[in-house]
Amino acid sequence: MQTFTLVAAHSGTPTPRTAPELSDIALFVMAAAGVWFVRRALRRRFAKARAAKD
Stretch 19-40: mean pLDDT, rounded? Predict the structure, then answer.
């Protein structure tokens, strides 16, 4: 029989947020990088199509 120890994830008392968490900043940076990457790829794709058309 296995014994599992249950550990609480937090104490249950909320604390006020004074600044964004590091994970919030990392998520924003990754989203911005994703948007930049996709826009760059689409610009290249449409530039190639326009050059081939001309």
Answer: 96
